[in-house]
């Protein structure tokens, strides 16, 4: 099916998530949509698959303009989307799962369905037991099943959102073979990814998005450097680099391994000093959040040791970490950082030390007023946090940090903020460094990572690089590492390859 | 939009909710063939028609006041303590147990009564801590855990009444053997009302009001109720705070049970909680968890309950009509609040 997007615009509040996107994808193509987090890949695909409607623009399928109202409507038009996390019902059998999502009669004909499924399986050489329970399937198998389901429903266009996350290497080979077969049958495959190597080995064309705009389209052979530059853009000047004297070791990780259901980070050794800033780079979901939260005491490492100021904190509770001067500042400000329905004053009281059973509201209001001025928050002590703008919420979060702190762990400290607010936030964080705190932060913004870190850890698919010296690393090198290029395939890491 | 204007909009929506609830109840009355105006007149007359009747309203008011006050704590922490019925029951059981233990001990009756109240609070708190532990450590939703424990509490009461604590001779649904007069909370002569019960209820509300409004504990509880994840990350031990909310609410519910035993029934009866827990949930929802409104609204609900007692005799109507009106009030209030928010959001666009 020949897919055309003509002048697609989508706004979320003030954010222009899709900005005049024109794209043509012919049948038989395996077309990559490449871009960093927040570039607008998902928004565009959601428009195409009917999850959201474009504010402006037109979608044409085989030359005919269509309006897609819902995902069910999309599949009716022949567009099927495969989500990053499989949308299925784990406690059900494979076959029942299948029938749930299928339109038709109230009493489905099981036998017929099973027969046509088995035929489809044979076509792609899949071997899924249709009577197994969903939760016994691997992520890769669930993905295969989802592909079968979409094809069975008559999909002519398949959209895959980050399909290679969380599946094994052989399954990836299998997936790519399947996609090539589908393309050969004249189906249209749209492959959303940030992984350069996948795009390079699979796709027939790449469209690169950045900040909602289509910045370019490239055909093979691909020049990786060019793709990296297109994805991340040009360097913006952030002013002079602040140099902070480093002190004693604050955080020490020894043979530190962490794990969640998706991945495992093995054997990290790291020493972070007072005044030092470590940037954690990598695409979202590459393990850096798990790592940061484990350093905060929210998760426990599966092996290894975590020392804070020469005290062994391995396996201690989150509250122990908090009491010993560790503070984690999450990215989702309203969900994990602030408490909607409470005022700024109430937040400062909650974050501060308790000395008496009752709150001295008059004094608290005065303190709140001082902090508001100091952190340049546009609000009053009685303002509810949900009424603040994003930048002000972020400054409020920073204002909540107690003094002194040993270790500050920040997730996307400046995401969604304008340049001015970002610079302000970092001036406050560097002040903390001068007071002797160490900072670890996650960011998707390579310039931010390079400019404010002393050292950088790169995360890619559950692998962690050794600390790189930020002064000696370029945007291109970092971009390639994040996209999975330049990693040693086997054996130990050789810094020469990165630097 | 000015603050004043939006306030008037709020009041008019609330007024509309009351009208709708009355309309709804009136339609039900018409369907059952009863004269609505006469029914309402009977309710009013039955509740505030005489000083004696009003004192009965106050008798019903005290347990309702206590349970609603307790629920303010759990609602503040974002918890639905449906198990409050069982907590009242366990309070009553512990009070009865203590009175049975000490009634022939020769201790001064005042002391025994104080101990009985404390025992009731302990019973309710223990039962609530079960629901709380299931929630915080077992991952069982407090609604399911609480509901289950309510049934267990009822079964426990029946077992005691027909088993170990049965009346001499034979156990009966009328409850255990009544306690001697000196173990009753002193009553105002000519009424069934104990001024002590009223004092206990008002003190409880005052204490909870001050704690929720002014203390660190209250503020943290509010934070936990509004966003448990942020609260945890900011450093509040959220499990401990949720448990405390359950225990406090349970203690107040248990106190309500103790009042039922010592001031109203003077024995343990099968339905000792009298639905005051569920009614308290309705009141708490209706007042949108604002502590100062507890007194008038719970008084109004108690008046409806007492006022409708006469309905079966006079109009051959079931006395549950008060329940219909109470339920309709809450439903229409919640509904009109939803409508108001939609209207305001549309107006903003």
Description:
The complex is a heterodimer of chains A (499) and B (349). Chain A has 499 residues and is α/β, with parallel strands linked by helices. Chain A is built from 18 helices and 21 strands. Chain A has helices at residues 41-48, 71-76, 94-100, 110-124, 139-152, 169-184, 196-202, 224-232, 288-295, 318-323, 333-337, 344-351, 361-374, 390-399, 419-434, 446-452, 475-482, 495-498, and strands spanning 3-12, 15-25, 30-34, 56-61, 64-66, 79-82, 157-161, 188-193, 205-210, 213-218, 249-259, 264-273, 277-281, 303-308, 311-312, 326-329, 407-411, 438-442, 455-460, 463-464, 468-469. In chain A, the strands form 4 sheets. In chain A, strands 13, 16, 17, 18, 19, 20 and 21 form a 7-stranded mixed sheet that branches. A 6-stranded mixed sheet of chain A has the order 6-7-8-3-9-10, sandwiched between helices. The two termini of chain A are 45 Å apart. By secondary structure, chain B is mainly α. Helices cover 75% and strands 0% of the residues of chain B. Chain B contains 14 helices and no strands. In chain B, helix 2 crosses helix 12 (294-307) and helix 11 runs parallel beside helix 14 (321-348). The mean pLDDT of chain B is 91. Chains A and B meet through helix 10, helix 11 and helix 12 of A and helix 8 and helix 9 of B.
Which keywords apply here?
heterodimer; A: 499 residues; alpha/beta; Rossmann fold; 2 domains; six-stranded mixed β-sheet; disordered C terminus; B: 349 residues; mainly alpha; ABC transporter involved in vitamin B12 uptake, BtuC; 14 helices; 0% strand
Summed up:
The complex is a heterodimer of chains A (499) and B (349). Chain A is of the alpha/beta class.
Question: What portion of residues of chain B is helical?
Answer: over 70%
SSE series of chain B: HHHHHHHHHHHHHH
Corresponding CATH architecture of the largest domain in chain A: 3-Layer(aba) Sandwich
What does the largest sheet of chain B look like? Answer: none
Number of strands of chain A: 21
Strand segment count of chain B: 0
Helix-and-strand structural type of chain A: alpha/beta
Determine the structural class of chain B based on helices, strands and strand pairing: mainly alpha
Overall geometric form of chain B: globular
Main beta sheet strand tally, sense and closure of chain A: 7 strands, mixed
User: What is the terminal separation of chain A in angstroms?
Assistant: 45 Å
- What proportion of the residues of chain B form beta strands (DSSP E)? under 5%
Count of runs of 4 or more consecutive helical residues of chain A: 18
Q: Quote the distance from N terminus to C terminus of chain B.
A: 12 Å
Radius of gyration of chain B: 21 Å
Quaternary structure classification: heterodimer
**Rg result of chain A:** 25 Å
The stretches of 5 or more residues of chain B where confidence is low (pLDDT under 50) are none
What is the CATH architecture annotation of chain B?
A: Orthogonal Bundle
Chain-averaged pLDDT of chain A: 86
Provide the residue-averaged pLDDT of chain B: 91
